[in-house]
Design brief:
Elements: H1 2-18, H2 31-41, H3 45-63, H4 69-86, H5 92-117, H6 125-163
Helix pairs in contact: 1-2, 1-3, 2-3, 2-4, 2-6, 3-4, 4-5, 5-6
Length: about 180
């Protein structure tokens, strides 16, 4: 039963990552939702990190690598951590709040990385502020994508659990204790 659940979770994350390969508006992607979902659902903490990060790496090999990959993956790992916190607190309100927090974490960390590692902005407080201000228009799509994909992943998997009891957690509420 655990194996079929883990396999199904991995397939859901893989499908979400595959959607990155489809045409989409800038920053309207499933990456934060994948990390949040993985942290909240995989019973094994190693899987919670490795499956979403591994699937992300596979899709990045197709999309292409860039200078900010370590920064993006670092923010991604922190978002898995938010998902771990979410494990025993899954309600629609906490899931939505975690998705918003994930968007903010991604925005703050990756745009700091753009400033610190790139050559677009001076390495001053004014340059850092300019980097964040320039990124604000993209935040709307980041937030919309994170909320959309979080709803699809969490809601879709809850629906699958109703249809296929073998996909349900063995001990609801105890997921954070494993």
């Amino acid at each position: 039963m655990i194996h079929s659940r883990s396999f199904a979770l991995a397939l859901v994350v893989l499908a979400a990552a595959a959607s990155r390969l489809l045409p989409h508006p800038p920053n309207f992607t499933p990456i934060a939702a994948m990390a949040l979902f993985g942290g909240a659902h995989f019973a094994d903490r190693r899987q919670a990190f490795l499956v979403p990060l591994g699937v992300m790496a596979l899709s990045d090999l197709v999309i292409g690598l860039h200078q900010l990959v370590p920064v993006v993956y670092g923010s991604f790992a922190l978002i898995v951590g938010i998902g771990l916190w979410l494990r025993t607190r899954r309600t629609p309100a906490t899931i939505a709040a975690a998705a918003i927090a994930s968007s903010v974490v991604f925005f703050l960390i990756t745009n700091f990385g753009v400033w610190a590692l790139g050559s677009w902005y001076p390495k001053t407080a004014a340059g850092l502020l300019a980097a964040y201000v320039a990124a604000v228009p993209f935040f709307r799509n980041t937030l919309a994508g994170d909320l959309f994909y979080t709803a699809v992943l969490f809601g879709g998997f809850a629906l699958l659990g109703r249809l296929f009891p073998s996909l349900r957690e063995a001990h609801p509420g105890a997921a954070g204790l494993r």
